[in-house]
Design goal:
- The protein is α/β, with parallel strands linked by helices and about 375 residues long.
- The chain has two domains: about 5-165 and about 360-370, Glycogen Phosphorylase B (Rossmann fold), CATH 3.40.50.2000; about 170-355, 3-Layer(aba) Sandwich (Rossmann fold).
- About 45% of the residues lie in helices and about 15% in strands.
- The protein has 15 helices and 13 strands.
- It has helices at about 15-30, 45-50, 70-95, 105-115, 130-135, 175-185, 205-215, 230-245, 245-250, 260-270, 280-290, 305-315, 330-340, 345-355, 360-370; strands at about 5-10, 35-40, 55-60, 95-100, 120-125, 140-145, 160, 190-195, 220-225, 255, 275, 295, 320.
- Strands 3-2-1-4-5-6-7 form a seven-stranded parallel β-sheet, with helices on both faces.
- Helix 11 links the parallel strand 11 and strand 12 (about 295).
- It starts with a strand and ends in an 8-residue tail after the last helix.
- The mean pLDDT is about 90.
């Protein structure tokens, strides 16, 4: 008997990467009788679903805003159009369970699934739930969360803290930092700072790094993920800045538009310190690598969730938070120097990250989903 399970969510890597991680675990647990499908908006990351033989059903993305915005004039009709799309496309697939990660395009699928009485499992990555998650929770059989602090927002009887699902390749096996530096063509004798702005990149962090290169590069090397949308602009801006430096210093800066899963794992392993935004997915990947971090939460993120994520993680001792309003070269350089010198702090951060990370998150999420499939037994 074929087991049909549908995945929905979309927008950024924070929504799509956990879906992929759970999809891999579902395939491992359910075997060849499993048919997976994805309902949501299309972008370059959805190619990962195709590579896993997951059927794709496009749903128009629409963002729910609780404030006046001219874009609502377009997104409100798109929201109702998305519901109609989902009703027709779910009817052709009729899955046994829907698993939602939220994001643009997910709520119309949840509403359509409710119409067909399909059991719904949702997962919230961030410490403060999004509007989509709060609305979806009313229809969900199971509510899964990454942070224990998030559980207070939902009924305890159907809420489970599982952690944030990350892809299997990120869970272990990072290896020796110095050896990974050599493997990724970095200097094994220099500190390596990995700078991440999330799957979309961060203009604010990119600008900060650009302005700080003259201070950073004499003491360290930098691996910088700038985001595909920002890559050409950053390439143009960085050239004149680097030309002002001596050639050996120029070679210490390494810029990437996007890091593939394999390259991301290698970069995490080769890092001595990570500077990053504070999306939940990125935080849990940093925790998996057990590296000290400087988190710069996105100001004005929905429900201010990045700030909440950052301070919860920093409260474990695994990271330091720098607010955007305090983001200066001197402050960050001082923090980096202090973190590199303090081996006791590095060990505390490593232990705290290991204790925070939940390596079985994707596996446990898959098990929660399969429990709702009638007649399924391992």
């Amino acid at each position: 008997m074929t087991i049909r399970i549908a995945l929905t969510g979309g927008g950024t890597g924070g929504h799509l990467y956990p879906l992929l991680a759970v999809a891999d675990e579902l395939k491992y647990a359910a075997g060849p009788n499993l048919r997976l499908s994805y309902f949501g908006p299309l972008n370059e990351m959805t190619e990962e679903f195709e590579s896993r033989d997951i059927a794709i059903y496009p749903i128009a993305p629409s963002k729910l805003r609780r404030y006046f915005d001219i874009r609502n004039i377009i997104d409100i009709p798109k929201f109702f159009f998305g519901i109609i799309q989902a009703l027709f496309k779910l009817y052709s697939e009729m899955p046994a369970v829907i698993f939602s990660k939220g994001g643009p395009g997910a709520l119309p699928v949840i509403i359509a699934a409710r119409w067909y009485m399909i059991p719904i499992v949702i997962h919230e990555s961030d410490s403060v739930p999004s509007l989509t998650t709060r609305l979806s929770a009313k229809f969900a059989k199971k509510i899964l969360v990454s942070f224990k602090e998030t559980a207070i927002y939902f009924p305890s009887a159907k809420t489970v803290v599982v952690g944030n699902p990350i892809r299997r390749e990120f869970i272990d096996g990072y290896g020796d930092t110095a050896q990974l530096k050599q493997f990724t063509n970095l200097n094994p004798n220099l500190p390596n700072i990995l700078v991440l702005g999330g799957s979309q990149g961060s203009v604010r962090i990119n600008t900060f790094i650009l302005d700080s290169l003259h201070s950073f590069l004499p003491e360290m090397q930098i691996t910088h993920q700038v985001g595909a949308a920002n890559f050409d602009e950053m390439q143009a801006l960085i050239k004149p800045s680097l030309k002002e430096l001596e050639e050996p210093l120029q070679a210490r800066y390494h810029q990437f538009a996007y890091l593939t899963p394999q390259r991301m794992k290698e970069s995490l392993g080769a890092a001595d310190i990570i500077i990053s935004r504070a999306g939940a997915g990125t935080i849990f990947e940093i925790a998996a690598a057990q590296k000290p971090a400087i988190l710069i939460p996105l100001g004005g993120s929905a429900n201010d969730h990045q700030r909440s994520n950052a301070y919860i993680y920093a409260g474990t001792g695994a990271a330091t938070v720098v607010e955007e309003s305090n983001l200066t070269t001197n402050l960050v350089l001082s923090l980096i120097r202090s973190m590199l010198k303090d081996e006791t702090m590095q060990m505390r951060a490593k232990i705290a990250a290991k204790n925070f990370f939940k390596p079985a998150a994707a596996k446990n999420t898959a098990e929660e989903i399969l429990q709702l499939v009638k007649g399924f037994s391992r």
